[in-house]
Amino acid sequence: MNPAPLEAVLLPETISELTGLGQFGILGDMIAAFLAAFFVGNLMLAMTGVAGPWAKRKITAAFTDRIAVNRVGPFGLLIIVASAVQLLAKELIIPEHVDRPAYDLAPVVIASSAMLGFAVIPMGSGIQLADPEVGLVFVFAIASIASVGLVMAGYASNNKFSMLGGLRAVAQNIAYEIPLIVTGASVVIFTGTLQMSGIVEAQQQALFTVAGIGIPAWFAIVNPFAFVLFLAANIAELGRNPFDTPEAPTEIVAGYQTEYSSVYFVLIYLGEFLHIFLGAAIITTIFLGGPTGPVLPGIVWFIIKIWAIFLFTQWLRSALPRVRIDQMIEIGWKGMLVLSFANLVLTAVIVGVFVA
Amino acid sequence: MSEWIAVGALAFVAVLIPVGMMVVSALLRPSVPEQGKRSTYESGEVPTGTTRIRFNIQYYMVALLFVVFDIETAFIFPWVVIYTDAIAEVGLLHALGPMLVFIGVLVAALVWAWRTGAVQWIKSEHPEKRTRIQP
Fold first, then answer.
1. Alpha helix locations (H) across A64-159?
2. Contacts of A132 (CB under 8 A, 6+ apart)
3. How many CB pairs under 8 A join A and B?
4. A202 lies within 8 A of chain B by CB
5. What's the rounded Cα separation, in Å, for the pair B76 and B79?
6. Phi, psi of A215 (to 5 degrees)
7. Cβ separation of A45 and B5 shorter than 8 Å?
8. B18 and A267 in contact by Cβ < 8 A?
9. B105 near A CB under 8 A
10. Which candidate from B13, B38, B43 shows the least CB-CB separation from A93?
């Protein structure tokens, strides 16, 4: 074990204690880790299952004054099951002359990389798979792998729309990744650690008290400028509206996913939703105090917070027009990048003067 | 060390779930090959020319710029971690100064890229001369 300053109990350890797997040495550890990973993976899969076929439709319908799915089950909830079966049972049409291994691997890369990011996210109530000291860097690194999957999908599909979508996706991802990471780094100035539990811990003390209620020192409140920057860069990194130029249905059909059908389409779609939730989980952890909150258990707060950010992305989707690719690049390199470095330097100077 | 076992376990699960879905789908789905079904989508037309078309050079320019800045962020991370401790140890000037110089060089590079138009999305001056896809 690491000589961690904060002794957080991780999910694999809890499982290994409860089931007595710990006595079987490294093999027991691996089985416990696998069980914990399976739980976390399926938890996020369940979120995506609710969000994709049901919540997204309902939310968009509410914005556009419609009802949406309401026939199958209460509130149309069983549409989740129906959609899953329907989508998996679709015929898989592989277009002519696709670049075969890349075409098949791309959906797996997109979905897997999004899911792997949840390994270091503290979800409250002791649900956290791992808490390495490089947690924040790890999660940024894993979240970037999806760009590779998008390029693979775009290039391998043998379709001009896919090709353009893949190019746009990578141009956008690299333009907004620097502001994202630099803004994330500005938070680390406050915490002095990259460990996720340490970042959550640093946001616990009350910043000030209003009418007897302590306002916690969430970094969204301590440094709202960084929060807004990070939120915008994150939306762009995920390719959600108003930055959904890589998929832009009115320009390039569906971008990199034009030629994907059946289960491959499901995996790409799943990967995108997992990425929204991963982005939401990163924001929750480093800006919204992680899974902590009054009265309710941690996991409930974690789910409330990530769904709040999911709702925010859906609100943007209904409310804002799409930016063009040239505007996209210019906003990224000329606006966000400069602002994020200004934020980093200002934070460093203010914290430095404050500490010294 | 056991933490990385858990990360590895999630990596395994994260591949297992998509592959499992692909297997389930392979068992469920029909296969009805038809004439023309496998041609790529090009707004309903018969696809013309190759997909590997020449594309805008600026995708390459921003990618080059990214390589520079991405390495810079890797250098910024160790600094932000030790920053507050370093102030206590060597004082504000020595903790902050070098990084300000470093970011200053970076900003100078960005200004140069900005002025030379690397991040400016230029429209073709001769739109009629653009490569046409030959049928």
1. 79-88, 100-116, 135-156
2. A2, A120, A138, A195, B3, B4, B7
3. 239
4. no
5. 5
6. -85, 120
7. no
8. yes
9. no
10. B38
Residue carrying structure tokens 């199958």: A72
Residue of A nearest to B58 (CA): A171
Q: Is A27 on the interface with B (CB under 8 A)?
A: no
SS3 at position B132:
coil
CB contact (8 A) between residue B25 and residue A262: yes
Reported ipTM: the value is: 0.83
- List of residues 6+ apart from B57 with CB closer than 8 A: none
A1 to chain B: which residues are within 8 Å by CB?
1-2
Residues A259/A159, Cβ–Cβ less than 8 Å: yes
Please name the residues between 38 and 97 in chain B that touch chain A, using a CB distance below 8 Å.
38-43, 47, 51-53, 55-56, 58-59, 62-63, 65-66, 69-70, 73, 76-77, 80-85, 87-88, 91-92, 95-96
Chunk chain A into consecutive blocks of 10 residues (it has 356) and report each block's average pLDDT, rounded to whole numbers. Answer: 48 75 76 84 88 87 87 84 87 84 89 89 81 87 88 86 86 88 88 84 76 75 88 87 80 82 88 91 88 81 90 89 84 87 88 78
Instruction: DSSP letter for A12, please.
Output: H
Nearest to B20 by CA among A108, A66, A330: A108
Q: Measured between CB atoms, does A127 come within 8 Å of chain B?
A: no
Answer yes or no: pTM beyond 0.80.
Answer: yes
Residue A208 contacts by C-beta under 8 Å, 6 or more apart in sequence?
A: A214, A215
Q: What is the CA radius of gyration of chain B?
A: 26
What would the pLDDT profile of B55-94 be if each residue is shown by its tens digit? 777 778 788 888 888 888 888 888 888 888 888 888 778 8
pLDDT tens figures, B82-133: 888 888 888 778 888 888 898 888 888 888 888 887 777 766 666 666 555 5
Question: How many other β-carbons are positioned within 10 Å of the β-carbon of residue B25?
Answer: 20
Number of Cβ within a 10 Å radius of residue A235: 23
A332 contacts A179 by C-beta, under 8 angstroms: yes
> Rounded to an integer, what distance in angstroms lies between the CA atom of residue A49 and that of residue A45?
6
Map tokens 């209904």 to a residue.
A318
A10 touches chain B (CB under 8 A): yes
C-alpha A167/C-alpha A79 separation (Å) is 34
